[in-house]
Amino acid sequence: MQPIAEGLQFPEGPIVMPDGTIVLVEIRRGTLSRVSTAGDIDVVAELGGGPNGAAIGPDGRCYVCNNGGFEWHDVNGLTLPGEQPVDYAGGSIQVVDLETGEFEVMYSEVDGHLLRGPNDIVFDRSGGFWFTDHGKNRARDRDRGGLYYAAADGSSIAEVVYPLDSPNGVGLSPDEDRVYVAETHSGQVLAWDLVGPGRLAGSSPSRGVFIGSPAGRKLFDSLAMDAHGNVSVATLSTPGITTFTPEGTELEFVPTNDPLTTNIAFGGDDMRTAYITLSGTGRLVSTLWDRPGLKLNY
């Protein structure tokens, strides 16, 4: 794996831009940042809280899942997120102008329930977006999470699946007839068949279809889809990237050297460069991938 940038403050949510730069969040720093091809880091916007997942929307702005922040711990050279911080004020979906750094809060609740810890996000071709709410952990309890669908213009948001166990990564199949979710603590990938934007097939069970769970102690973080419909999930504890076929076969495990390997994104002219966030050590790296990634809608 080739190093791109170091000294990031718990990077996540990488987006490969047309000019080769990487826009990502730094959760501990509370920023949306841009990494140049030379590895320089510039702050695009100071968002506060805990910016987590990010995606470019149909209007060219960057939509950010803000989880509201964590307590932070430095242990044996690693940065570790902890429980809900004392200054926690809730989660939200923020929208950032990449040119000016100006941002607004688009959503902070659904059906009268406050968003707790929005985590990951993906846009469909109709311009709406799916996102997960991971919830927050406290000393003696933690939230239940869910899967949501919202309009990019701020006009509607819906709770589609609830409850889920610490839902994290979210992705769409190439035909957008299925939505995938990775649960962190259960170490499972689940899927629901779709009949339209934001609409589950009538036969979809509330817990979804079980796709896969790897052997050994592996927890799941964010995910990315490849052009063949395989699901590549950033894997914690036993660190790396775990890839499942749509049928649930574990295709491969690519190890990394950071126990907090949190996300993967694909880019390059042939979509065969994988960009991986190694958050515990604050690094962004890249590597050649055996299969082309799925090109995002925006």
What does this structure look like?
The chain is mainly β and 298 residues long. It has one domain (2-288): TolB, C-terminal domain (Neuraminidase), CATH 2.120.10.30. Helices cover 0% and strands 52% of the residues. Strands 18, 19, 20, 21 and 22 form a five-stranded antiparallel beta sheet that branches. Strand 23 (219-225) and strand 24 form a beta hairpin. The radius of gyration is 17 Å and the shape is globular.
Structural class determined from secondary elements: mainly beta
Number of domains: 1
Mean pLDDT across all amino acids: 96
Order of helices and strands: EEEEEEEEEEEEEEEEEEEEEEEEEEEEE
The count of strands amounts to 29
By CATH, the superfamily comes out as TolB, C-terminal domain
Strand content: over 45%
Distance between the termini: 27 Å
General form: globular
Q: The CATH topology, please?
A: Neuraminidase
Helical residue percent band: under 10%
Radius of gyration: 17 Å
**Number of DSSP helical runs:** 0
Low-pLDDT runs: none
Characterize the main sheet: 5 strands, antiparallel
CATH architecture descriptor: 6 Propeller
Q: Identify the CATH class.
A: Mainly Beta
Walk me through the topology.
Layout: E1 2-5, E2 11-16, E3 22-26, E4 31-35, E5 41-46, E6 51-56, E7 62-66, E8 72-75, E9 78-81, E10 92-96, E11 103-107, E12 109-110, E13 113-114, E14 118-123, E15 129-133, E16 145-150, E17 157-164, E18 167-172, E19 178-183, E20 188-196, E21 199-200, E22 209-212, E23 219-225, E24 231-236, E25 240-244, E26 250-255, E27 261-267, E28 273-278, E29 283-288
Antiparallel strand pairs: 1-29, 2-3, 3-4, 4-5, 6-7, 7-10, 8-9, 10-11, 12-13, 14-15, 15-16, 16-17, 18-19, 19-20, 20-21, 20-22, 23-24, 24-25, 25-26, 27-28, 28-29
